[in-house]
Amino acid sequence: MGLTNQEIHNMAMQVVGDALKEDGFEFLAVNSKLKKDPQFVCLKEKKLHFVVVKASLYPTNPKEYDLELMTQVKEHAEKYNAFTYYAGVGFAHAENYEKPLSKKEPYVVNYNGLQEIH
To answer: What CATH number should be reported for the domain holding residue 74?
Structure first.
C-alpha cells in the first residue's frame, strides 16, 4: 500500500528538521500540515528563519519550487526581518524508482540542504 501525501510530507519534515537541528537552529514554531507555509520558524545566531518544506516523488526535481508561493512567504518573512528558505526533499523507491513508496519497503532520499530565497 502506498503512502499518503501527508505521510510523505511528514517524512520530508523529519529529514529537514533533523538537518536544521544538526546545524544549530532552534525551533520556534513547527507546522506539519500540508499547504501551511512556512513549516519551520527558527532562530539561529539571533536571526529569524522561515523554512518551507516540500516533498516530491521521482521523477520530479525536488529543487524546483513554486515561485509565487515562495514570493508570498518571502514578503511575509520580510515583515519580521527573517531569512526565507526552500527545502525540497525528493523520495523514490530504493529498488525501482517507478514503484510507489510504502511503509515496508526501502526508499532513497534526495535532499541537498536549504536554498535561500533572495
So the answer is: 3.40.1350.10
